[in-house]
Amino acid sequence: MDxxxxxxxxxxxxxxxxxxxxxxxxxxxxxxxLFFLLIMIFVYFQSSFSDVKKITVTGNENISxxxxxxxxxxxxxxxxxxxxxxxxxxxxxxxxxxxxxxxxKSFYNHLQIQVKEYHRVAYLExxxxxxxxxxxxxxxxxxxxxFMPVNAPIIADWKDKDQLKSMAKELxxxxxxxxxxxxxxxxxxxxxxxxxxxxYMTDGYVVRSSISxxxxxxxxxxxxxxxxxxxxxGVINMDISTYFREYGDEEAPKE
Length: 255
Hints:
By secondary structure, this protein is of the alpha/beta class. Helices cover about 35% and strands about 25% of the residues. The chain has helices at about 10-45, 65-70, 85-90, 160-175, 175-180, 215-220, 220-230, and strands spanning about 55-60, 100-105, 110-115, 120-125, 130-135, 155, 180-185, 195-200, 205-210, 235-240, 240-245. The N and C termini lie far apart (about 125 Å).
């Protein structure tokens, strides 16, 4: 029969005391660590360390960084951790020029705002003022008095705002090469439905078309002009069927 070694209680007490002391020390270290962590968190939120350190805005061309930051309601000395990505995106998304927005946070207290703008497809002329028209059909505030529209057609004598939205969407589908060749766009006053347009081109032609299939038809314009040659000028009808008629005295383009 095996004999178990018996350890006297006197020998066990010092070992138990040591284990108990180690356990107490570990507990104390944990408590102190938590205490200092809470102190650091408190100091962080109460000091400038928690403020937004850097804001980067990308994707904007027509609207300034400052306007986007202001729209996002990001105030100076705002706590970085208290910022809501969703709230900032919602606020900036209210800007008419903005198509989409995404907000990201990165180290150290760096706020990144990535936006996508609606393209400016034309300028609406009213009372000698030019209003930028976005691809969404929205017309922005007028440009300054010294501003002259470039790289986009002028929409003149246009009263129907619903048709303006449709026209803007069609213009957005055009390639830049075709869009830049359009000088002015007018509603055809002879069309009672208000869906036909007259275009004055930079190369001297007049184009008649309709809004419904405007972009599809206009992409044929460069090849049609090439076939006509540089010396034949006139009216190109690009509505249901496409045909060309040279200028008569009554059909010459306006000066």
